[in-house]
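Page 47, continued from p. 46.
Same chain as before, 311 aa.
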Amino acid sequence: MTAEQKELVEKKRDRRGRVKRIKNFIVSFITTWILVSMVAIVALTAKVISLQHQIDEIRGSAAATEAAVSEASDSADFIDGDVDTMALMNYGPSAEENLAEAGDTLKVYLTFDDGPSGNSDQILDILDDYNVKATFFVVGKEDEESKRIYKRIVDEGHTLAMHSYTHKYSYIYASLDNFKSDFEKLQNLLYDVTGVDCDLYRFPGGSSNRVSNTDMAEYIKYLNDENVRYLDWNVASGDATSAPITADDLVENVMSDVVKYKTSVVLMHDADSKDATVEALPTLIEKLQAEGALILPVSDDTEMIQHVTVQ
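Result:
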């Protein structure tokens, strides 16, 4: 082999070596990039899952505040307050005194929280069809349609009651001053619109709520000083949560409990999303009437059902 041929062979070998090294580099780079990408994807997936769990917890906490807390007495197991800090009036019967016996005439108070809403007129129409009066714990809304609903509630003989102006737990229960401001704003609004000086209140979440930063006794004392009664409930329809509920479920929830008590205060909601409540109302009224129950609006003679036991 001549020197020229040897040189040519060496050049070919060098070229093949460079090509091989380049291929190895490319393969190594791609492999490393794939591995790094996979690790990053796994890490990001884990982070997304963690963030989703946090979001779910926040949503769950909010739902508990706005809904589950308000159903704290679903099975009528009332939460007793600290009697030492609640030297207050006790309007109503104890749970034991309220247990129905054979031959008792049942008194049932249908109550609707959170209105006015797009369902208010339908609820009022149904009540009118059956000549039944109910109690509406309303929030503060100053649009003309809501003012019309306030007036209709009063004009048709139902009880107009207060459920806070804002219904914002974080504001209402932040301090007694906030509570007073919210309360007065709603009471003044309802008086200006309807001429009714409302003296009946339902705490958002009930008097047994665990959201308030201030002892609930302070709010109750304030209401007492204002000659305003507060009413909770001992029968929950189940329409307070965001979980879906059918009209049949709602009727069953109510009817399974009202037969237990001489006086039943039924918690329902007047809100745009509560179509099942509207659908269930005619059947519920018919079943209550078939049971011989008196369906009444809350009045001065009503025995107050309260979650917090006071003396």
